[in-house]
Amino acid sequence: MVYIKPFRALRPKEDLVSKVNSPPYDIISKEEARSVIEHNPYSFLKVVKPETTIQEAENISDSQLAEIAARNLQEMIRQKIFLQDENECFYLYSQSNEIYQRMGLVVCLSAEDYLKGIIKKHENINTETYQQRVSHIMKTKTHTGCILVLYKSNGGIEELLKQEAGNKKPIYEFESEDGIKNCCWQIQKKEIIFTLIKAFQDISSLYIADGHHRAAAAVEVARLLKSQQKKSQDNEKKVMEEYMYFPAVLIPDNQIHISAYHRVVRIPLDFNKDDFINRLAQIFKIEKISPNHPFLPSTKHEFGMNMSGQWYRLLIKEGILHKEESDITSRLDVSILQEMVLHPLLGIKYPQQNNVIEFIGGVNSLLKIEERIEQEAVIVFTLFPTSVEDVIEISEMEKIMPPKSTWFTPKLRSGIFVHYFG
Q1: Could you state, in chain order, the average pLDDT of each consecutive group of 10 residues for the chain (422 residues)?
Q2: Relative to the CA of 269, which of 10, 146, 180, 340 has its CA 20 to 30 Å away?
């Protein structure tokens, strides 16, 4: 049984939301963010990426950066760029373009549901990123970004949300720089809020799609604050404080779009390409693409590869994958590439700890890949996207996907619905 809670969002004034909203902190570089802020002082990047607002950020601690973020947020509140709703509400958040459309319900989820395993995960946590998020939440007393969370499609819930959106004027309507049309509505009626709470009580599990570090950090902050809280002698009844919740956008699984996460490997000048191709041919059927053009796989267990500017199609040979293999994670294309190519043939055992490999995902991934091919000697591997069904199955089995297995598109914007618990 899932518990969802309405909340009083701290959110931008309607006429400023197009300037305030920003991409998530983890998909934009410090240099890119600094350029955005220079041209747009309203950008929420000042809060989610505070290192961009100071000159020397090399030797500054996570705690100091979080204090800067808190000051930047308080200044935006002081200037009335952000206002907090008077009453607890749910919100609707729609994102669309010519390719896909999705609508989610913006709620607060319970840290207790996360700890009980009702809110399921599929990704390992990087300790450094996790600690940065903990510091950020503690100092700002906010959850600045919503977690993207899936639920198994429920026609009744989706129909109700569609009706609510159709009956109301959006509180926000803007196009972000990635070409996505963003629309938001507010749900204030108590009977609708109650109906939605009851509807989600019939759902057994939720699945984190994007935002594992933010979710884990929010739960850790809840634990820390709960342990610091003194027991009230005047009231023996247990009260769930606001810090025990964190914001999320709940989206049905049939509206989720996953893009592939491709791999780009830098190779040394003395790299033996012929030997690599010969060893690769023991695993894959290798087909040279002619005429030469970028190749994106169209099915599972098919890969694209670019080496020395030439594109190839790689199709795994029969008998290489064992049908009796029961571990779903080992059947993922990202696992096959890692265990059969990156580690044994290129010496990359721990991808996230190796500076010779980078990961490229998103709508402009091919353009970025072409740029990398022109810049230096690399081998590129393009992959078929991981399926939503795989994400759910792995989460339910309490397994962990390899790093950089999924790129959920579009990305939720930051700075639209901020959860303040201070």
Answers
A1: 97 98 93 95 97 81 95 98 98 95 98 98 93 98 97 95 95 96 98 98 97 97 89 49 97 96 94 96 96 95 96 93 72 95 94 88 90 94 97 96 93 98 90
A2: 340
